[in-house]
Write a structure and sequence with these properties.
There is one protein chain. By secondary structure, the chain is mainly alpha-helical. The chain has three domains: 94 residues, Fumarase C, Chain B, domain 1 (Orthogonal Bundle); 224 residues, Up-down Bundle (Fumarase C, Chain A, domain 2), CATH 1.20.200; 78 residues, Fumarase/aspartase (C-terminal domain) (Ribonucleotide Reductase Protein R1, domain 1, Orthogonal Bundle). Helix content is 59%, strand content 7%. It contains 19 helices and nine strands. The two termini are 53 Å apart. The relative contact order is 0.10. Bound molecules: arginine. The site of arginine has 9 residues, from helix 6. Arginine binds next to helix 6.
């Protein structure tokens, strides 16, 4: 194992088993660039506090910027010595010690990894929230396109996965647009509450005055965002806090849940039994044994990954539960689930935004299902209610009418190839206001959808949003 950030107190060498068991470099190497940024801020503070001369500061800054470049090129991943280090903080300290010998030994003044690790995990999180939001907007754009392109198509709506009432495809996809909007807001709120602080030290603060922290660093530029950086108001909380990790994992879990439900609907719609959609062949996979198969594996994995995302959330919740203040090594285990959830959700969003654009609707199969007259039972009851029948009475009348229709295998409309039609006399037995003419006006998916007036129809707004998006 390479040089540690500690060791003075120890007279024995660490057992290799302990080194292997405790190190986190293979996971926290993801934080490399964020650790450098944190160090660049920290040396500003050291200069302000006169713990570094301007010349020393300049040399360290140059060295750190060179390391940052090396890290951004991903070359460091090939460094054979990387895995000898305990964690990424130790590795970068070692790099700077080689680049700026002597002066680099001052870098860790008034700093602890306890503070450093939380600072750079927060930076990583802020950066990745933005990336996820960008990907969400891409999926939303695809949903809007599907919604607008299929705004004229109605499908049976389901409750309990049973035929309920006709709905418009536009409205179906709009539901997911709403969900994704909430996901975006949830992530924005988390972004706003992540507070970047300095000066926690190991747990008790440092001897550098807060005003020196304050004047040395005020803002950090992340992409195009200016993120405020302030001296901590509670060093104890700063090094103990992993709420932001839990909040992110929770927001990603909810987002993953939404994508999982959308996937499930699409999987069902693509079955032979439904046959509502065709998922483009380039987004399907085959079977090694059954030559005819075209499987929706992408959607199945999105559905399945929800389990991983929840597992990651639960893992950090359980790790944090009951930990005594302040930092404990258990907290090192927050990073794997955090990075894993960010990776999964980005992959899901990326593939989904493309898959959605290639979905084709099979209007013939959909129309066949829409001809199920039971879908219009509520519309018949609504007609009676609008004509003065009490709801309870109307519900019973239509229930009996549907039961009669099913029992005798007849249509509520004039005769067709499959069924005999009901007569006006039969209908009038249920209620004098009912007739074949009335039925013809009710049993129609377009009329049914149009008659649902409680919705603030957003087609126009959405079409505008879509065009704006383009
Ligand atoms: N690798 C550690 C982590 O991720 C860094 C902090 C270690 N601090 C300590 N005092 N042992 O949490």
């Amino acid at each position: 194992m390479a040089k540690k950030l500690w060791g003075g107190r120890f007279s024995k060498k660490t057992d290799p088993l302990v080194e292997e068991f405790t190190k986190s470099i293979q996971i926290d190497k993801t934080l490399a660039q964020y650790d450098c940024w944190g160090s660049i801020l920290h040396i500003n503070v050291l200069k302000k506090a006169k713990l570094l001369t301007p010349e020393e500061h300049e040399k360290l800054e140059k060295g750190l910027n060179a390391i940052l470049k090396y890290i951004e090129s991903d070359e460091f991943e090939k460094d054979p010595s990387l895995n000898d280090f305990e964690d990424i903080h130790s590795y970068i300290q070692n790099l700077i010690e080689k680049k700026v010998p002597g002066i680099a030994l001052k870098l860790h003044t008034c700093r602890s990894r306890n503070d450093q690790v939380v600072f750079c995990t927060k930076l990583y999180s802020l950066d990745h929230i933005k990336v996820v939001q960008k990907f969400i907007m891409e999926v939303d754009k695809s949903l809007l396109k599907l919604a607008v392109d299929n705004a004229g198509v109605n499908i049976p709506g389901y409750t309990h996965l049973q035929h309920a009432m006709p709905i418009n495809l536009f409205e179906y996809f709009y539901a997911y647009h709403e969900m994704l909007n909430r996901d975006l807001k949830r992530l924005s709120n988390i972004y706003k509450t992540i507070n970047l602080t300095l000066g926690a030290g190991a747990l008790a603060g440092t001897f550098i005055k807060s005003k020196e922290y304050n004047s040395a660093v005020k803002l950090l530029l992340l992409s195009k965002d200016k993120i405020p950086v302030k001296p901590t108001t509670s060093a104890i909380d700063t090094v103990s806090d992993r709420d932001f990790v839990i909040e992110i994992l929770s927001a990603i879990s909810i987002l993953g849940l939404h994508l999982s439900r959308l996937s499930e609907d699409l999987i069902i719609w693509s079955t032979k039994e439904f046959d509502f959609i065709e998922i483009d062949e380039s987004f399907c996979t085959g079977s090694s044994l059954m030559p005819q198969k075209r499987n929706p594996d992408v959607l199945e994995l999105i559905r399945g990954y929800a389990g991983k995302l929840y597992g990651n959330l639960i893992s950090v919740l359980v790790t944090m539960k009951g930990l005594p203040l302040t930092y404990n090594r258990d907290m090192q285990l927050d990073k794997e689930p955090l990075f894993n959830s960010f990776t999964i959700i980005q992959q899901e969003l990326k593939v989904l935004s493309h898959l959605l654009l290639k979905i084709k609707f099979n209007e013939t199969a959909i129309k066949k299902q829409l001809s199920d007259e039971c879908l219009y039972a509520t519309d018949i009851s609504d007609f009676l209610v609008k004509n003065g029948v009490t709801f309870k009475e109307a519900h019973t009348i239509v229930g009996q009418l549907i039961s009669y229709k099913l029992k005798h295998g007849i249509s509520l409309l004039p005769e067709n190839e499959m069924e005999k039609g009901i007569t006006d006399e039969e209908l009038k037995k249920f209620h004098p206001l009912l007739s074949i003419e009335v039925m013809k006006r009710i049993i129609d998916p377009y009329i049914s959808v149009k008659n649902k007036k409680s919705l603030r129809r957003k087609l126009r707004i959405m079409t505008k949003e879509y065009i704006h998006h383009k």
